[in-house]
Amino acid sequence: MPNFWKGEDLVEQARVMVGVPCGDQVQAVFAYSLAGMMAHTMGTLVGPTQPIEWIRLVFHRGTLIAPQRYELALAALGLNATHLLWIDSDTEFPPDALNRLLARNKDYVGIVQCGRRPPCGTTSFIWEVPGKPTMVYTYPESTGLQRVDALGFGFTLCRTEVFRKVPPPFFPMQWGQMTNGEWQFNGEDVGFQSWVRKAGFEMWVDHDLSKECGHAGAVVYKMEHALAMRDAMVEVGTFVIPPGALGEYKGGADLIEEKPKLVLVKE
Fold first, then answer.
1. Can you tell me the distance from the alpha carbon of 220 to that of 27, in angstroms, rounded to the nearest whole number?
2. Which of 135, 143, 151, 154 is the 20 to 30 A CA-CA neighbour of 116?
């Protein structure tokens, strides 16, 4: 694989597949952002000393998100990509977003997004104590990277090595019963990331990039919307997570045998 010199470090060139799970339509701000990013990134593919060897764009149209992500992950492995850039079709981002995440040189790094329905929480969490998720916010003064336990796929870059260490089906579809007796679906992203952590990978959010991204709903939601509603979110109580570390990673065929009971977390 070609390499290039950056200062005194020999850095591997990246082969990036951009994976977009979507329905029949995408948000206009996403389409505009994607066009800007692809033009900017293609402009960096000049000469043997650039950080990106190639970039491929792959859309997967469908209605079930977990199978879509599974097929996109297989496509990245089939292309022998070094990185898979996940972008959700309702995300707004700057043209140099991919280059900036690559420069972070992490196995798994993405953005904190504001939710797109009020009251707006965020899409990233840490587990300060077992069984209790704490939202991660990007404040005006936030900068650099922060390690997290879960983050949405809105704009996330991961090395394909992750999919070689976490056996398929990668993205579990889990239901759990809350303490009030109601059933709720636990996202395929959180389920996958529990296995990613068990496989020994760390996950990070980029606060600097997060400030420049949006999440399109009825309006394009920014981090300031989440910050304005932060105190109200304590009363909502809509988070469901399995006890402990989101289920045990066992590898191979045992990955989906046990379905941990989910609990409602509310202050």
1. 10
2. 143
Listed in sequence order, the DSSP H helices in 43-127 are 65-78, 97-104
Query: Does this model's pTM top 0.85?
Result: no
Q: How far apart are CA 241 and CA 18, in angstroms?
A: 29
Better-predicted residue by pLDDT, 184 or 127:
127
Q: Select from 1.10.260.40, 3.20.20.105, 3.90.550.40, 3.20.20.70 the CATH code of 3-173+201-235.
A: 3.90.550.40
**DSSP 3-state assignment of 223?**
helix
The values of phi and psi at residue 181, to 5°, are 90, -10
CB 132 within 8 A of CB 265: yes
Can you tell me which residue has the tokens 């879960």? 150
CA 222 from chain centre, in angstroms, equals: 17
- Per-residue confidence (pLDDT) for residue 49, from 0 to 100: 58
Q: Determine the pLDDT at residue 134.
A: 86
Cα 233 to Cα 222: distance, rounded to the nearest angstrom = 16
CA 207, CA 254: separation in Å to the nearest integer?
Answer: 36
Per the listing, tokens 């981090």 go with 223
- The tokens describing 242, both together, are 């399995």
Report the chain's mean pLDDT, rounded to a whole number: 80
What is the pLDDT at residue 46?
Answer: 61
CA distances from 7 to 4, 10, 49, 82, 263 (A): 10, 8, 12, 22, 49
